[in-house]
Amino acid sequence: MSITWHILGAGSLGTLWATRLARAGVPVRLILRDKTRLASYQAGPGLTLVEHGIAHTYPVIAETSDSPEPIQRLLVACKAYDAQGAVAQLQHRLAPDAELILLQNGLGSQDAVAAQLPLARCIFASSTEGAFRDGDWRVVFAGHGYTWLGDVGHPTPPLWLEDLHAAGIPHDWSTDILTRLWRKLALNCAINPLTVLYQCRNGGLQAHACEVATLCAELSELLECCGQPAAAQDLHSEVTRVIEATAANYSSMYQDVANARRTEISYLLGYACQAAARHQLNLPHLQQLQVRLVEQLRVRGLPQD
Ligand code: NAP
């Protein structure tokens, strides 16, 4: 019997992972926010995954952080701004050599969690899979993609990648996971904030090509300065390609703002601007972008961090 996967956060990605692992017979337990959420979950039949329009429900066992069992493997599926606090609530249950898989977008939250748990193995993930909740405990698998996993400290892949294989979760072990995360962060910084400011789909940025190009030049300079030259390579052409390929889509940040949800700005554009400040780099367009985005969030009454 393989080790139980504890899944912290039964949102979009947490459910996407939990249901596929459970479907493959891998032992899974959900850790929910509190007793109220647990009662709501237990009043229903389980977690539902909608794939290709067909819904399947899996009766995955759930608990809160108060349960006594030790945790050996933890998939952290919260938003970046919740990850550190949510893991702290579980710290007393983590085995000394526990393994954590961190699914958060952007950068900053992974280091914060790792610093909190110096003995644990923290594996960073970068995913192009897409999912959204269309009801409580119900998730739609919207975009098939890939997940790269890597460990900044230890290049050896863990044996449990077998579980992901069995569950049909497309993945690869990456020895340059930080480069992947930086690249994704740069793509996000070049596209997402502008879609909020111009209130447009990704394709709407074709009308702001000069601004996008200037941001890409500054982001490339930042990546080089942060020791990530591979993440800087051909950034502008990839951004242009993504804008074209996803022209009809609304960015995740656009959707967060449109639905009055907190954004992950501090782990994306905010992280980039902080890194620039640390390196005493003057990136006026990127910094101005952050000022404009924060102002937009303030006007809409949303958290500015
Ligand atoms: P989400 O749907 O908002 O799910 C986050 C879940 O975390 C929620 O269910 C929330 O509980 C739970 N949570 C927060 N604090 C908790 C705590 N203390 N204890 C237990 N549960 C807690 O978010 P998501 O879309 O899955 O995103 C997760 C991360 O993956 C983000 O960093 C995101 O950028 C990244 N990502 C997402 C996608 C995607 O397609 N969704 C793709 C790639 C990357 P409640 O339900 O009680 O609020």
Reconstruct the topology from this structure.
Layout: E1 5-8, H1 12-23, E2 28-32, H2 35-42, E3 47-51, E4 54-58, E5 61-64, E6 71-76, H3 80-88, E7 94-102, H4 109-116, E8 121-127, E9 130-135, E10 138-143, E11 147-150, H5 161-167, E12 171-173, H6 177-197, H7 209-225, H8 229-232, H9 235-245, H10 252-258, H11 269-278, H12 284-299
Parallel strand pairs: 1-2, 1-6, 2-5, 3-10, 6-7, 7-8, 11-12
Antiparallel strand pairs: 3-4, 8-11, 9-10
Helix pairs in contact: 1-5, 3-4, 6-7, 6-9, 6-10, 6-12, 7-9, 11-12
CATH superfamily of the largest domain: NAD(P)-binding Rossmann-like Domain
Oligomer class: single chain
Helices and strands, in order, run as EHEHEEEEHEHEEEEHEHHHHHHH
For the largest beta-sheet, the strand count, sense and barrel status come to: 8 strands, mixed
CATH class of the largest domain: Alpha Beta
Counted beta strands: 12
Count, helices: 12
Shape: globular
Strand order across the largest sheet: 5-2-1-6-7-8-11-12
Strand content: 15-25%
**Domain count:** 2
> For the residues shown, what is the average pLDDT?
97
Helical amount: 40-55%
Low confidence ranges: none
Separation of the first and last Cα atoms: 42 Å
CATH topology of the largest domain: Rossmann fold
Under the CATH scheme, the architecture of the largest domain is 3-Layer(aba) Sandwich
Present as ligands are: NADP nicotinamide-adenine-dinucleotide phosphate
> Which class do the helix and strand fractions yield?
alpha/beta
